[in-house]
Amino acid sequence: MSLTPDANEQLARARADLRIGLPVVLRDGARQLLCLAVETLSPERMAALAVLGGTPHLVITSRRAETLKARAYDGDLARIVLPRDADLTWLNAVADPADDLRAPMKGPFNALRDGPADLDRLALRILKSARLLPAALVLPVATAPEGLTVLNAQPTRHVLDTSSPLHPVISARVPLAAAENSRLHVFRPEDGGEEHYAIEIGRPPRDAPVLARLHSACFTGDLLGSLKCDCGPQLRGALAQMGAEGAGVLLYLNQEGRGIGLANKMRAYSLQDQGFDTVEANHRLGFEDDERDFRLGAALLQKMGFSSARLLTNNPAKIAMMERAGIAVTERVPLKVGENPHNAHYLATKAAKSGHLL
Ligand SMILES: Nc1nc2c(ncn2[C@@H]2O[C@H](COP(=O)(O)OP(=O)(O)OP(=O)(O)O)[C@@H](O)[C@H]2O)c(=O)[nH]1
Ligand SMILES: [Zn+2]
């Protein structure tokens, strides 16, 4: 292996660059796009972009375009032409739905129809993987400024399509209130993404279906005891059941907010304060209702030596994904705990719109 970064490592750098407001270069042959996250764009960088000349445009997902009543000629995304007087305030108002109700954006929006949108699509995928709002200011350029991270489209797409291999870092005994005989395993992905954890209760036999839970991180529910969701009681309920049976594996996956990150989840909560439900809020922000990749749950179980599971869940999508990824689900074990007046509407919405079982 050479000492220079490969596509995986370039992507990790690009995520960090975009999060601090630096542009990255997306390249496909002779075509190049300078790409900036609207969320972290500063007035200075916007002015520097203007000096380069050319015609920048704004890329948003079709979910966001739908709310704005902008035409998404490219299917899953729209390339919005910037009005002549477009400034940072305008860009932010298109990207971020926070003020949609108080100060609705007035169209009509002019969207590009011609030319390829593949690099624009890649820009949105990278922003989502950096847990930023999926809205990019892009500028086609002949030559890019020096010193920027350059991503070649084909290998970058391949990296995004593939689950990053996870490697065990360390495991140690952590006696829990629910089960004294417990170990915490830490796994680290190769792509610079978040670490994930496995809590192993007892010593489940590897050749039998293991009582397992894929738990998605929820800072508000798991740690703060938020009543807006059922995550905290589900976490403790799953551990308690594993403790009672003397064996089980709880995968704690750092996919906060169904994979959109805590900042975006709080944006979604703020929209819920304005009356939108959990699915509508994700869509207004430009996300799908669920952006998680459950393949990593299957990968972790396989790494630990399991090939079948009794899965603690109410979410059929999790079961389907585990089966597709090579873990046989021999039984669905329901996990109905923690309903309260604050989350009743949330749970009903998940049952009605996301297929969760009641
Ligand atoms: N985007 C978004 N994420 C949320 C919201 N409320 C909870 N979450 C996240 O949702 C995830 C939990 O997923 P759930 O849908 O409750 O449960 P599930 O994992 O799909 O299914 P179960 O296995 O039945 O619990 C956690 O990552 C939470 O942070 C919300 O309103 N918006
Ligand atoms: Zn939660």
TrEMBL record:
Quick one: a GO cellular component term?
Answer: cytosol
Q: Which reaction does it catalyse?
A: GTP + 4 H2O = 2,5-diamino-6-hydroxy-4-(5-phosphoribosylamino)-pyrimidine + formate + 2 phosphate + 3 H(+)
Keywords (alphabetical) are: GTP-binding, Hydrolase, Metal-binding, Nucleotide-binding, Riboflavin biosynthesis, Zinc
Tagged with keyword Nucleotide-binding: yes
**Which residues does the annotation say bind GTP?**
R213, L214, H215, S216, A217, Q234, E256, G257, R258, T278, T313, K318
InterPro entries assigned to the protein according to its UniProt record, in alphabetical order: GTP_cyclohydro_II, RibA, RibA-like_sf
Q: EC number(s) for this protein?
A: 3.5.4.25
Against NCBIfam families, the record matches this protein to: PRK00393.1 (NF001591), ribA (TIGR00505)
Q: What does this protein do?
A: Catalyzes the conversion of GTP to 2,5-diamino-6-ribosylamino-4(3H)-pyrimidinone 5'-phosphate (DARP), formate and pyrophosphate.
- This protein is called GTP cyclohydrolase-2
Organism listed in the record: Pseudooceanicola atlanticus
Task: State the encoding gene.
Answer: ribA
